[in-house]
Specification:
mainly alpha; 9 helices; globular
Length: about 170
């Protein structure tokens, strides 16, 4: 599928869903970046549609990522510097903070399994519940948001969100 675009003018993403070979390190990195970009886009869409409210730092960071993704090749060439990845680690720390860690995900799966097995009232469930109560707090890293987004009010953010969503829709229907 990956070679189809180079051999013909057909883009496989237009008729086949996006896929990645996760055993290939390059494809795995592409998958991770795609996941982070889609997460940013979903935040902007939810915010623009007023489905969910987000912290200012989260929406501004997600908007910045989406604007970066929506740039055309000509616009990227004109920039003085362009980041190596679309989403930096610091940006992911901001927009991905509601994602579950591997430990929390494993605990949730275990709880769900216990519910299915109807073992909720057993000693196993009590041990699992006690483990949930002893969560460690993570230290927050300092947040850096680009200066031009820092001064925007809510109405301007919604306008920019609508504009970037239209641009993304035109770029990747």
């Amino acid at each position: 599928m990956k070679e189809l675009k180079s051999r013909t003018s057909i883009d496989p993403d237009t008729f086949f869903s996006k896929c990645f070979d996760l055993s290939d390190p390059e494809e795995f990195e592409s998958f991770k970046e795609y996941y982070m970009v889609i997460k940013a886009e979903s935040i902007v869409k939810k915010y623009h549609a007023e489905v969910e409210e987000f912290d200012d730092k989260v929406i501004k960071t997600a908007l910045l990522i989406c604007e970066r993704r929506a740039l055309d090749l000509d616009e990227i060439i004109d920039l003085k510097s362009f980041p190596e990845t679309l989403v930096s680690d610091r940006e992911w720390d901001i927009i991905g903070k509601d994602e579950m860690s591997e430990t929390r995900l494993a605990k949730k799966k275990h709880k769900d399994w216990l519910k299915k097995m109807d073992c909720k009232k057993t000693a196993l469930a009590k041990v699992d519940n006690a483990a949930d109560k002893t969560k460690k707090k993570k230290k927050k890293k300092p947040v850096v948001v680009e200066e031009d987004l820092e001064e925007l009010d809510e109405e301007e953010i919604r306008e920019r969100a609508g504009a970037v969503l239209e641009k993304l829709k035109a770029k990747d229907p």
